[in-house]
Amino acid sequence: MSSRPRLVIFDVDGTLVDSQAHIMAATTRAFEGEGLATPARAAVLGCVGLSLPVLMARIAPEADAGLQARLIAGYRQGYGDLRAEGAEDLSPLYPGARDALDALAGRDDVLLAVATGKSRRGMAHLIAQHGLEGMFQSIQTADDHPSKPSPEMLRACLVETGVDARDATILGDTAFDMEMGRNAGVHALGVTWGYHDKNRLFQGGASEVIDDFTGVIPALERRWRLQ
What is residue 13's three-state secondary structure? Predict the structure, then answer.
C-alpha cells in the first residue's frame, strides 16, 4: 500500500448511528404539532441524509413555505426535546462501529472525517454522547454546505485534511452518499444496514457494498491495495 495518507469519510445517520427511532419521533412531533398526519415511515427514512429543508420538502411536498418552515422548526425542537428528555438511546452506534473507528483511528496512515446532514449542534451532541472527541480530523455538517449529493462537504474534508480525492473514501448507507462521492471524485463504499438497499447504492455509484461493520476495514484495504 502507498505511504500516502488515506481519508475515510463517514456519513452518520444510518451508517454510524441507528437514529431511525429518534428521527421518526421528531417527525411525528413536528407534524402532530401542525395537526397533520405523520408521513409514512418508509418515505421519511428514505430521505435521511438530506439536509432538513430538502428532506421536509420531499416528505411534505404540498406544504407552502410557511408550513414548511414550521415543520422544520418543529422537527428541530422535537429532536432536541427528545434528547433533553433522556432519549439518548434513540441513536445508538451500530454494532461494530466503535471497534472499526478505533482500529482506523489507531493507524498512522489513516485520517477520519464526517460528512453529515446533521446540524453542527446535533453532531456535537452525538460526539459527546458516544465519546468520540478527537476521532475526526474534519467534520462537515448541513449548516455549512448544500445538501447531499452536492460534493461540497467532501471537498471541504479534502481541503481540511490535505488528502487527494483519489486517496479518500466515503462510507454511507444511501444513494445520496454514493452520488456525493461520485460528484467529488471520491471512492464510494456502500453499507446495507441503513436506509437504502443494495440496488440503490450501486445505482448511486457504490463500487462495493458491505453488509456488516466487520467488512469495513477489509473493503478499505482491498481498495488501497489496488492503488
Answer: strand
Closest CA to 84 of 131, 33, 122: 122
Rounded-to-integer distance, Cα 75 and Cα 67, Å: 12
Separation CA 73–CA 86 (nearest Å): 20
**pLDDT (tens digit, 9 = 90+) per residue, 105-124?**
999 999 999 999 998 988 99
- What are the residues facing 138 on neighbouring strands? 113
Long-range contacts of 28-37, Cβ-Cβ distance < 8 Å, separation of 24 or more: 28/78, 29/74, 29/75, 29/77, 29/78, 29/81, 29/82, 30/71, 30/72, 30/74, 30/75, 30/77, 30/78, 31/60, 31/71, 31/74, 33/70, 33/74, 33/78, 34/67, 34/70, 34/71, 34/74, 36/60
Distance CA 85, CA 116 (A): 24
Checking 153-158 for CB contacts under 8 A at 24+ apart, the result is 153/115, 153/116, 153/180, 154/9, 154/115, 154/180, 154/181, 154/183, 154/184, 154/186, 155/184, 157/7, 157/9, 157/113, 157/115, 158/7, 158/184, 158/186
Residue 219: CB atoms within 10 Å: 18
pTM exceeds 0.85 for this model: yes
Nine-digit cell at 25?
Answer: 419521533
